[in-house]
């Protein structure tokens, strides 16, 4: 039961310390949620990060990359503390951080106080991070929570015939962003949202939340992740829940689909949308899945990489490739490196990624449905692939800015 | 009871009306106006039952805590770690043997053993030095937390509910009446009811053991005057060890319960330490009935709070604690 990540960290430090001493090093600080509700997500993120290092190597010209990992617990202050520690104690020059939504907003704000350094978002997906007052040295190569829901609302309304749904979500920026994306599309198609329930991150006892779910809806949308999602499903099953479910991007994800126990079976047939789909046929994706599977023994990883592994892979890939383009030149406040980062176009496992003027990813989104592979393992199967999803979700920027920022009650359920 | 009514007739009347109102809310079919004002009855009933069953879990943790404090005047701040350890042991055993019940037994024994070692190796050495003991337990809880993080990782574990306990049962409580006149009964998860009943049984057995047996007599005497009890020739150290083992074992059982209807992960230790501290402060340090009352109050406050005032739910329990500390600092049911 010894966890992989401790070993992983130990291994990577070991490898690093034995590497050529005389060589000049570029220090990169990495944060992941290795504590608290999102522990499993953080661990798999680090696996994705490691897979990228295996694939692309750590050499940049005549320099060697050194990665230092710090742990957070999904709260903004823990992320800023970890980032500060990496900068002040470990003297890192580049950051690959953070994982979770609220952390992202905090780290972006912190990034402004250190304009000479470069921050590459690892996996966080709150809209505000890059949409409101973006920081010139903060780059995000994954889409935000709203982009990750593109396609779901229409699919639920048109194909599944859901007309009225209710949502349950964790009470923080990333899930606000996810519900934002869902509501815009679902209500735009003519659907109705009867009820939005918000629960604190790290809720253990969902019994009352489950009791308060409305009966007269066609489906219930779940925007939960990590331990919260597993707790919810476990208690949902104990309470005998039978409604149709819809899932957010970290709800229908290997972090939940391969959890121990049988509560996850409640998710069979659930429709969801995310920046990836487990069973996508694309050769690039299949190659990444293979690399991930080969990098770790089966009991130390998920059957297939989670969204977090994919995001960490993508951001690590961007970091290494952009550094190679400038041959590891970090002079002049890393100006050349930042320029390369802004321009780079990634051929990521989950489709092509390029950045907009706010340094926010434009990428591919997937609508999926949960299926059983016949041996009891659950996977998300592709239903629809939507390329070129931008942060304003295809809306005219002026219209989009009038909708308001994602929150408990925004957007309203209407056609914008 | 009668004395309380004689001394505070007004308060007794208010309490009576509150109880009657609560019973009416639970038993009667709600008129439509009420449903419009505060939501459906099903939600309310569920929240009440959830509060009580959550209270049962809190009681299991807090009763050991308060027992140890009552006898040894030792605020064991490593109590949360014992809870978490019990949960991990229960998980490992139930995965290994496939038996849920066996998980309880072994978790009880294993955590009780840890308690015995703690009492003999640590607390006996600094008997009577309250502050030193408290500081040591804080240190120990940090060491335990890191050891468990090392052994079990940051992952969350969930103990499998046995298949005969999965799913809801219908309770004879009417939540609504359909237009056809047919009554709709409340459906509630069986596993929570079983755990609730088990907690009541444990509470009654503990009360009987304390009030009706020779050992219980010694423990009560020890709570009142430790030195005098020792002077009468009772092997007081043995009683201490036994009580510590029992208190720790109960925390272990609670860990398995917590792992079954919630989940266990790092951080749960401090959460449950905090919960049991609040429970015993509200109920009264050292009192078993106090722990039961406090646990139900805190459980209800958390669950009703999460339904009716979700934004401020976290504050409610602490508000209750502050109120109790302001009006009755010794706790609701404390004897002294």
UniProtKB/TrEMBL annotation, chain A:
InterPro entries: BCAA_transport, Leu-bd, Peripla_BP_I. Pfam families: Peripla_BP_6. The keyword Transport applies. Residues 25-375 form the Leucine-binding protein domain. Gene3D superfamilies: 3.40.50.2300. CDD domains: PBP1_aromatic_compounds-like. One of its GO terms (biological process) is amino acid transport. Residues 1-22 form the signal peptide. Keywords: Amino-acid transport, Signal, Transport. Belongs to the leucine-binding protein family. This is ABC transporter substrate-binding protein.
TrEMBL record, chain B:
GO terms for molecular function: transmembrane transporter activity. InterPro entries: ABC_transp_permease (IPR001851), BCAA_transport_permease (IPR052157). It is a multi-pass membrane protein. CDD domains: TM_PBP1_LivH_like. The keyword Repeat does not apply. Keywords: Amino-acid transport, Cell membrane, Membrane, Transmembrane, Transmembrane helix, Transport. GO terms for cellular component: plasma membrane. It is found in: Cell membrane. The chain crosses the membrane at residues 12-31, 43-69, 76-94, 100-123, 135-153, 189-210, 236-261, 273-301, 307-327. GO terms for biological process: amino acid transport. Belongs to the binding-protein-dependent transport system permease family. LivHM subfamily. This is Branched-chain amino acid ABC transporter permease. It comes from Bradyrhizobium archetypum.
